């Protein structure tokens, strides 16, 4: 056990590491898809507004909690209020669930990078759909076995984590993040030179207010929440490594600029390229793995001889984004285990690595031998993604808002932020954390869960219907949240809780 908790050497190291966590696969394949789906420029405008309000509030809160307590999320909540100790375990589940399947996708990225760097990008494009399905379906040889690439990605992640905060995470982030930015800019500039790309650029950047809808807000809200590594325990953990003299508010603004900037550049890479590839239509920008591993190889192939180079650089970019996020996820789990059992870093990292491989294997096998085994109609990886992103994360963030906004008070956060500099956004933070953010988080939870089960499809409903459905479920869910919270923290008889809930049904 270390006598002194590890720390970043300075604010720059912290910002780059936190930005590396925030910048991940969601920026590179989910953001462009959502931007294309929900109106391009108007989606960007809504996203930026939410980033400087909603995103700012939650990130400041989590970093301040981490720095104030000097603990990982599993112990930080308990230190603030013993009645909320259960939140530590609830939030701990998020990185435990996400880390394994995220590393699985990271393995896919390495495999594609290897194909492009070896000069087989053109062969990949001609049979991209078949190659991807055969690859994840474990229908090839050893080289094409996704389990191998998954283990390689996990090993690379753990190798960085094992060296600790200063020599591992901070040092790697200081190298990878500038390279990532440079790669983004270079590829984006080239993408804009493609014939027909200007049509995609216009669609992407110019706001069309006629395309604004509640679905646009919900899409931007969900993407922002997941993109900024909120409610994963990551920012609390990184905050615990932050020095007292470092400016939290300024750091958060810089992280937001990094995260949003990379997402915008990813859109500049993908949307104009795909639009040009599809003859001026943005319809080919599909969601998830299909965009990254099927559509884009075809786009790179259409670029001609330079396409192989661009594809290689792109998947190198994606690898950097994926590994910086997986490092933060694994570090969060390692930090929690160390705080609980007081093991040294090497032993803890080895144990966490073995656990990651064991759990992640389920996601790998979920597209192969276990393809017919589904939970709620979802493949193993999709199920883990749903539980962590759509259920646990909004709940953790909602309860954090209740804890800070209505139990311990916002002054706790304001005082911590004010240690290094005046908290200029204090009034915004107070209003958002007490009233606005909890409402938005309930909307995220309700919309995502109902959409996942096919109860509502945002594209099938009018704005009024979407709002009505979310409000209707919120009327039941909010009292339920508060009732269960009251039961846990005050230990009242269950019959009284049931009677309270029935008043609202």
Task: List the topology elements.
Elements: H1 11-22, H2 25-37, H3 41-69, H4 73-80, H5 86-117, H6 121-126, H7 128-136, H8 146-161, H9 164-191, H10 197-205, H11 214-227, H12 234-240, H13 248-277, H14 289-302, H15 307-341, H16 345-365, H17 380-407, H18 411-417, H19 426-452, H20 463-490, H21 494-502
Folded structure, characterized:
The structure is a single chain. This protein has 505 residues and is mostly helical. It has a single domain (11-425), classed as Orthogonal Bundle (Hydantoin permease). It contains 21 helices and no strands. The longest helix is centred in the middle third of the chain and has 35 residues, at 307-341.
Give the low-confidence spans.
none
How many whole angstroms does the radius of gyration measure? Answer: 22 Å
CATH level 1 class label: Mainly Alpha
How widely separated are the two ends?
A: 51 Å
Q: What is the tally of beta strands?
A: 0
Tell me the β content: under 5%
What is the CATH fold-level name?
Hydantoin permease
What's the domain count?
A: 1
Can you tell me the overall shape? globular
The helix-and-strand class reads mainly alpha
Output mean pLDDT.
85
Order of helices and strands: HHHHHHHHHHHHHHHHHHHHH
What's the tally of helices? 21
CATH architecture: Orthogonal Bundle
As a percent range, the share of helical residues equals over 70%
Main sheet characteristics: none
CATH homologous superfamily classification: Hydantoin permease
